[in-house]
Amino acid sequence: MTSFSGKSILITGAASGIGFIMGRMALEKGAKHLVMWDINSESLSASANELTSKGYSVSTNLVDVRNKEQVSKVSEVVIKEQGTIDILFNNAGIVVGKSFEDHSYKDIENTLAVNSLGLMYVARAFLPAMIENGFGRIINIASAAGLTPNPGMTVYAASKWAAVGWSDSLRIELEQNHENIKVLTVMPSYINTGMFDGVKAPLLIPLLDPEKISAKILNSVEKEKFILREPFMIKLSPFVRGILPARIYDFIAGKILKVYSSMNTFTGRKGAKDD
Predict the structure, then answer these.
(1) Which of 156, 190, 249, 260 is catalytic?
(2) Is 123 in contact with 170 (CB distance < 8 Å)?
(3) What is the pLDDT of residues 193-250, one digit of tens each?
(4) Is 105 a catalytic residue?
């Protein structure tokens, strides 16, 4: 079992959505200090003030996870000022919900940079100190989109497939070489935070409540699980996709469950940075 009590926590995309909720819950569970990273200065300040007003120890850094030099520099400052980060939540994410032909090159670059490279940059920055300290937990917020194709989010899906592959490979690597550093890969379906405003929830795959999924993520950290897929149908996705011929899977996902049309009404929340 892993306890949050007395631990130092860092969360990217911490100003809103499940990033903020997970930070609040970690503090409620006795975390010693919370480091909040985000690129939205106003939201970051307001969210931190909300937590400090309750007596919690919180610090903030304005960080763009796409910028590896910035990530490296600020992480060094954090470790110097706060000590080793015990539990890292790689939560920052963005989505561009439109056909691939309508993506700009900047859309493609930003999505991959935040959702894939950003996770790697941040983990790489804090992992050496975790190894030296002999303890660490890395929680990578990926997506159910990393398990199945979905029109309307081609680049987002690609970025999350990369995140899932990297995260689970990192888990195995650390299990072999540093058994006290554990990795949790989280693959939720649509979370009702505003980032996916307008989506139509597929059949049998309801929108996830932010408070409930945040609680499940922290519970999974405590129980030292290495994979969390939610809701229930997402747990079955790898098995079903693995045993069915592609066209039959497409028929079930597209025609019956309506997964492939779920993004047709997507509007999104402008400037969303949480997942």
Answers:
(1) 156
(2) yes
(3) 999 999 999 999 999 999 999 999 999 999 999 999 999 999 999 999 999 999 999 9
(4) no
- Tokens 């300040």 label which residue? 45
**Arithmetic mean of pLDDT over the chain:** 96
Strand segments, DSSP code E, in the chain are: 8-12, 33-38, 58-62, 87-90, 136-141, 181-188, 227-230
Does the pLDDT value for residue 272 go beyond 90? no
Cβ-count burial 163-193 (b if 16+ within 10 Å, e if not): bbebbbebbeebeeeeeebbbbbbbbbbbbb
Please answer whether residues 65 and 112 qualify as being in contact, where contact means their C-beta atoms are separated by less than 8 angstroms: no
Please name each of the domains of the chain with its CATH number. Answer: 8-261 (3.40.50.720)
What is the rounded CA–CA span in Å between residue 78 and residue 63? 12
Backbone angles phi, psi at 224, to 5 degrees: 55, 40
Percent of the chain clearing pLDDT 70 (strictly above) = 98
The residue type at 225: K
